Structure to design on (1020 residues):
């Protein structure tokens, strides 16, 4: 083996796990999904090529309404998460120093040491009619009968925001940390109000962090399954639940795959639109 | 108000004090700055100059004392409404905005009309000699250009006082030299009062009309650069401003302004005392002699200066205009730096040569010995 | 260079394959079943007797079909789908293997049930299932708070806003259809008729929505809602009702007027079973009356084992008799096999009910 082929060989070895991972776990299943989604069942064990599973999504209002609802709720959850996480992150990044800062950061992490299922059950214990919050409200006399706070969209929202918080706080703290204090002071020094400094200096600087946090939270919410199922009400439909139902309870892999592909395409489109709107580039945001 | 009152000071501080816990950062500092002057605060790091500047800008609030701008107290005024602006140490230009955006930022905050903003931005860019830089991003500017934009961003607001927090610190030596001159010229053309803090004496001396030397939260001396250099009032100023040879000793005798000093090493010098120090015989003193005030004697034509020594050249430190000889005094093994005359007169001296040196009593300054806070 | 790379690649592949394949040992029985159908005690006794290790995976009807569909019928050695769900899944996905009835000890099984299951699980002349556990689904009612509920449609009655719970699954559609006076089972063969019936049921279920507290999906969620009093009536399995009855006398299982829905869970062999002999041994073992009794105690439902009820606690028998007076036993509607295609129609109905505001 000469030297150049040797380096090429070692490069291959180094890349191999990544290439295999990409090929076997990402690419192949998706290719398979696309091919399954383009089948239509004619009779038992007899399939034919068709776009029916895709057209079904647009023809049957139930499906695309579910998707719109899921996307809309996810956008809302993302915005709420941002609104809550921003002050928290600003406080951690700019107001705290040293040990306290690390401690607060870890406090944000702690809920993620338990599984999502346990966290969601925690919320169920708190919010249900015979749960802690309802009992408390009755005890202090704010309500004379049990209050049901579970099984509605607000409960889903609480669950989604809670689940996503960390994924917003981390990129925000990182970008806000890198904002030089003197830029903020300069903002005030040149006559800016709190609002001016926030909108003209802090937010533009934090924009990559905001956008990357939003992308992650949006995708997580969109793809969340447990939270909407467990906390959601009798009217609540979630698109991932549709996919799950198609695959698992209807055995309709063809429809499920089509939904999966559509989710991938539509959510990518939404993220792309978000990037365009915020004038950020994907590479800039993810680096 | 300034027109019809007798106020001639742009900025006045009275007994301004600021402590952080047990540490007094600024200790009863009072000063006045006349309109349109270039005022520097010179001091070592940790002397409290940055705290003082931040109090002037409004980012910190004094524990005691009063700050007046054009005769009006600004203690109740938040930073964004004080008629002062600050050029930050690392300039703090907004990287998310263009040059124009940076300069227009303050004007927008004052609700200046769009048309006027455009003309004022163009005007100030012209005045800082960067007329075409408006559309550039901040990271496209060179160090010196950034400097000028940072100043333009403040001056476009026509502040009463411009505060500068060691803005030249990040530049390389050549550029720093050049910017010193430029800053001085800018100040003269705009006529705005500049308050400049630095730990670099050369910056302070070159640019300033007045310099305050600050140490441990207090002003040691306020004066023109010449006064500080030639007539330091405290041993700290003597040691901090310019180079000096320094000895410790005590007073042997006093005859009017002239005093006889015996150093710890055993040298005898004739020196001059600063009047306000009121030295007595037997007092411990510090003695300062500047390298450039020491004469290298011509063996054929000796002067009658009172302080005369013979020594051996142990090192020639060539640094162009700042070249020095390091000379050992044989009796005491002490060393003394002597400036190399620029005339080239003694350029032939080499290591090991013996020479006579001498200096006047006036050039040999005596201060009561302070309790060990010497710096530099 | 290329050669050595290829060798290395093959070697790595081989290592990976060995790592994946090796954990499968000959004498294990991988059981895909319902919670309670293979209690620990029974598994231990079987392992002691035969030396075959039993690995149990809890599942439900849809999950079983999905799992077996995904692997083409491998990964498990014995499954326990309900009898009505076998033939359509087999026709569509070919996931089961015919049962060799000569290896089953038929003398241990109640003949009428064996015959019924054989008939219902036959496809192209081959039998795919033998009966194991049977039970019904109907109503679980808190008699003190909602004594008026006698049939499925009563769940939609007045005064129950936010107080009832049921699943959004096919038994709900079937149950409501019966209680609305229709016969969905008879309409299985007539798609148009069936769709018409489901349309009516859909409207009813949408109208009924204000009464629904939540659509339960796991049995535990239903038990919790009933136990806490947050729900006063539910559509559920008999065993769940009796379980609650043990702790809270007011709550019990009620056979609906229009008839409880009867189901039989069977034994079926996945097409690529690796331990067929062990599977038959397990079937014959658990159909012994005393073992069947243990399973009844654990699952809360009776089995198709002859004489198995002798070994069942009197309490359960009493509960059964209370819920099922003799006339109601005759009125049980046994699920016939679901023809392919129906489930897709049902799925859309369920989706629309869920989405309706």
């Amino acid at each position: 083996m000469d030297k150049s082929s040797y380096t090429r060989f070692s490069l291959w070895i180094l890349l191999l796990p990544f290439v295999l991972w990409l090929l076997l776990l990402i690419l192949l299943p998706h290719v398979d999904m696309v091919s399954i989604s383009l089948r239509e069942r004619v009779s038992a064990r007899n399939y034919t090529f068709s776009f029916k599973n895709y057209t079904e999504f647009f023809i049957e209002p139930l499906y695309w309404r579910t998707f719109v609802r899921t996307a809309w709720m996810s956008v809302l959850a993302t915005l709420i998460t941002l609104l809550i996480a921003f002050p928290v992150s600003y406080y951690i990044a700019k107001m705290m120093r040293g040990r306290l800062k690390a401690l607060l950061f870890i406090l944000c992490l702690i809920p993620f040491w338990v599984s999502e299922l346990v966290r969601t059950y925690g919320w169920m214990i708190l919010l249900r009619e015979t749960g802690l919050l309802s009992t408390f409200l009755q005890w202090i006399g704010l309500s004379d009968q049990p209050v049901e706070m579970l099984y509605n969209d607000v409960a889903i929202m609480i669950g989604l925001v809670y689940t996503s918080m960390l994924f917003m706080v981390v990129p925000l703290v990182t970008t806000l940390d890198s904002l030089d204090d003197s830029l903020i002071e300069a903002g005030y020094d040149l006559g800016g109000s709190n609002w001016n400094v926030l909108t003209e200096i802090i937010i533009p600087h934090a924009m990559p962090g905001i956008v990357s946090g939003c992308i992650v939270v949006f995708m997580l919410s969109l793809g969340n399954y447990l939270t909407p199922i467990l906390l959601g009400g009798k009217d609540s439909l979630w698109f991932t639940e549709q996919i799950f139902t198609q695959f698992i309870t209807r055995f309709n892999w063809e429809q499920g795959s089509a939904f999966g592909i559509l989710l991938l395409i539509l959510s990518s489109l939404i993220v792309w639109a978000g990037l365009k709107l915020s004038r950020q580039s994907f590479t800039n945001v993810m680096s | 108000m300034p027109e019809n009152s007798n106020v001639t000071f742009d900025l006045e501080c009275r007994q301004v004090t600021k402590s952080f816990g047990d540490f007094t950062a600024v200790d009863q500092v009072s000063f006045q700055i006349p309109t349109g002057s270039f005022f520097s605060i010179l001091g070592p790091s940790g002397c409290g100059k940055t705290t003082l500047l931040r109090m002037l800008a409004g980012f910190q609030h004094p524990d005691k004392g009063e700050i007046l701008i054009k005769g009006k107290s600004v203690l109740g005024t938040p930073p964004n409404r004080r008629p002062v602006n600050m050029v930050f140490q690392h300039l703090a230009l907004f990287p998310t905005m263009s040059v124009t955006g940076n300069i227009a930022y303050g004007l927008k905050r004052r609700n200046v009309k769009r048309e006027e903003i455009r003309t004022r931005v163009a005007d100030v860019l012209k005045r800082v000699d960067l007329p075409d830089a408006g559309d550039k991003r901040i990271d496209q500017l060179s160090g010196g250009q950034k400097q000028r934009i940072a100043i333009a961003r403040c001056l476009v607001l026509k502040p009463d006082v411009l505060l500068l927090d060691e803005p030249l610190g990040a530049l390389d030596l050549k550029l720093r030299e050049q910017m010193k001159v430029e800053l001085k010229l800018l100040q003269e053309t705009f006529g705005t009062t500049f308050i400049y803090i630095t730990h670099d004496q050369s910056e302070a001396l070159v640019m300033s009309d007045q310099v305050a030397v600050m140490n441990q939260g207090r002003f040691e001396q306020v004066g023109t650069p010449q006064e500080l250099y030639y007539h330091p009032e405290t041993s700290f100023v003597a040691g901090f401003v310019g180079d000096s040879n320094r000895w410790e000793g005590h007073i042997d005798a006093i005859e009017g302004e002239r005093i006889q000093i015996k150093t710890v090493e055993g040298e005898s010098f004739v020196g001059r005392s600063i009047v306000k120090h009121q030295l007595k015989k037997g007092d411990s003193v510090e003695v300062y002699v500047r390298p450039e005030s020491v004469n290298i004697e011509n063996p054929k034509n000796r002067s009658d200066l009172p302080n005369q020594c013979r020594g051996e050249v142990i090192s020639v430190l060539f640094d162009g205009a700042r070249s020095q000889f390091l000379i050992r005094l044989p009796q005491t093994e002490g060393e003394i730096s002597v400036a190399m005359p620029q005339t080239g007169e003694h350029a032939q001296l080499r290591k090991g040569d013996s020479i006579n040196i001498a200096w006047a009593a006036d050039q040999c300054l005596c201060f009561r010995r302070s309790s060990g806070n010497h710096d530099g | 260079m290329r050669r050595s790379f290829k060798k290395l690649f093959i070697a790595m592949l081989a290592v990976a394959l060995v790592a994946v394949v090796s954990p499968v040992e000959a004498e294990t029985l991988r059981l895909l079943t319902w919670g309670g159908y293979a209690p620990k005690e029974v598994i231990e006794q079987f392992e002691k007797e035969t030396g075959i290790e039993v690995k149990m995976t809890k599942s439900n009807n849809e999950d079983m079909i999905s799992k077996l569909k995904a692997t083409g019928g491998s990964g498990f050695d014995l499954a326990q789908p309900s009898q009505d769900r076998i033939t359509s899944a087999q026709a569509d996905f070919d996931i089961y293997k015919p049962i060799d009835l000569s290896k089953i000890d038929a003398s241990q099984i109640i003949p009428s049930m064996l015959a019924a299951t054989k008939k219902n699980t036959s496809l192209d002349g081959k039998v795919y299932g033998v009966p194991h556990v049977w039970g019904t689904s109907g109503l679980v009612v808190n008699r003190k708070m909602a004594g008026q509920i006698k049939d499925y449609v009563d769940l939609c009655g007045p005064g129950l806003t936010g107080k009832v719970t049921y699943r959004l699954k096919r038994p709900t559609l079937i149950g409501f259809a019966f209680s609305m006076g229709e016969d969905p089972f008879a309409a299985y063969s007539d798609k148009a008729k069936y769709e018409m019936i489901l349309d009516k049921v859909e409207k009813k279920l949408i109208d009924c929505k204000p009464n629904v507290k939540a659509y339960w999906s796991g049995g535990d969620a239903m038990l919790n809602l009933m136990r806490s009093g947050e729900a006063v009536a539910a559509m559920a399995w008999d065993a769940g009702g009796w379980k609650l009855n043990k702790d809270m006398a007011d709550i019990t299982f009620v056979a609906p007027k229009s008839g409880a829905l009867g189901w039989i869970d069977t034994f079926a062999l996945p097409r690529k079973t690796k331990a067929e002999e062990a599977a038959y041994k397990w079937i014959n073992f658990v159909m012994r009356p005393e073992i069947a009794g243990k399973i009844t105690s654990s699952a809360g439902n009776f089995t198709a084992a002859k004489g198995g009820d002798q070994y069942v606690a009197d309490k359960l028998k009493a509960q059964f008799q209370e819920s099922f007076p003799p006339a109601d036993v005759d009125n049980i509607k046994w699920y016939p096999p679901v023809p392919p295609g129906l489930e897709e129609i049902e799925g859309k109905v369920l989706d629309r009910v869920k989405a309706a505001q």
About this structure: Residues 22 and 28 of chain A are 8 Å apart (CA to CA). The mean pLDDT of chain A is 88. Chain A touches chain C through 33 residues (CB under 8 Å).
